[in-house]
Amino acid sequence: MNNQQSYWQQHWYYCWHSSKAYRKGQALSLVLFILFFLLYSLPFMLGAQAEFILFFLLRYVLEGISFILLSHFFLRPVLKIHFLRGYSWRAAIQIIIWMSLAALILACVSTFVSFLPALAKTDMQQVTLVNKDSVEGLQMHFSRASMLVMLWLMHISLFLFWSLIYLGWQMRQSRKALQEEMQQARLQQLTNQLNPHFLFNALNSIRALIFEDQHKAADTVTQLAELFRVHLQAHLRPTASVQEEWLLCQHYLKIEQVRLEQRLQVEVDIADEVAQQLLPTLCLLTLLENAVKHGISPNAAAGNIQISAKRLGKRWQLLLTNSVGAASNSQCTGTGLANCRKRLQLMFGDKASFEADLGNGHYTVRMELPYASSL
User: Fold this and answer.
1) What is the CATH number of domain 178-370?
2) Per-residue pLDDT reduced to its tens digit, 175-185
3) Could you give the CA distance from residue 270 to residue 312 in angstroms, rounded to a whole number?
């Protein structure tokens, strides 16, 4: 009883809930239905007056609306439920029953339309085919029962065709949703990989400070706690705005500034129009860590990091450049940069680019992404 009640609850739910794409598809189905029957009736309307053609058009509009309503309230919920639950012989029989019932109702509607005084001329029970060799043409007469059966069979074919298209569209949407879920899972996995990578670097900085200045080390632990408070909230999402990423980077720079002091100089130029643009979470922090660890930290002389973000027409650019002096003693695995590149590809595909260049004493990372004007 509960299963049956649940089934009918689902049935009525799908009757009153639909997507915008589905509604557009139904509107297209209505147009195609009317055009199909107009072309089907064309041999009977050759040489007919415009008024006669208008009657047929009105008839098929009424039948088309009935077809759309029956396909939506009868077939779609059943197809949707069994698409989600899985198909079986019992499900197939149930679908056939619903389809036959919908076709029978539509056949009755088509027959009833002929009884309307305004549409009596469109009665297909007695038809005349235009024949060039005969003045009277070819006349055919069908009984009401035979006409009902023919209409029923024709409408079953139409409902079957509609069902196949709908199931094909559902399979495509389901496959697309699955790909998006897998993409989000992969993005989250890559984001989570940065957590131990970042923590390892931060703890190494604190470890070095313990032997130099215990008070600075204590202050750095406080900054690290604040950084992780923001970090734990940020990494739960696969994307973050440029503004959010820069806020996180500021906490990191405070930690490194305690250790590196005047050796770390940072210049930032982020245009207001790109502040809300999205990029992979922790991506900017990863690039900044890489610049500090391999560009600034190994050198006794002061080094600088330049961060800029600006719009370039339909795209926007994030540029990070750091000075390079002495070679870094830290082993470079390339995990951070490879991670950013993979996540950009997952999020934007070929629409985004990632380049890293070393030259003229500077290491530059350039990212270009599509500009989202709706943000």
Assistant:
1) 3.30.565.10
2) 776 566 566 65
3) 13
